[in-house]
């Protein structure tokens, strides 16, 4: 995977990925509680509709996808 990020984008990506790791996520069978990770994905999707093409939203989408993948891989290993 080619990474064409500038220094600022790489710093933003790293900081955002760290924040995502701290967010809580509900189990797939639970309907109670607060799912911070899915709420963040909804916020990013809404912002992307308002301002399409912004690099920050694209980076956020990529990092959210990576975090969801990372968590699903951890679940499969257990």
Please give the largest β-sheet: none
Order of helices and strands: HHH
Compute the number of helices: 3
Q: What coarse outline follows from CA principal-axis ratios?
A: globular
The parts where pLDDT drops under 50 for at least 5 residues are none
Question: Class by helix and strand content?
Answer: mainly alpha
- Proportion of residues in β-strands: under 5%
Quick structural summary:
The chain is mostly helical and 78 residues long. Helix content is 69%, strand content 0%.
Describe the protein.
With 78 residues, the chain is mainly α. It has a domain at 37-42 and 57-78. The chain has helices spanning 7-22, 36-50, 55-77. It is globular and about 35 Å long. The chain starts with 6 loop residues before the first helix and ends with a helix. 6% of the residues are buried.
Main features:
3 helices, single chain, 69% helix, 78 residues, 0% strand, mainly alpha
What's the SSE blueprint?
Elements: H1 7-22, H2 36-50, H3 55-77
Helix pairs in contact: 1-3, 2-3
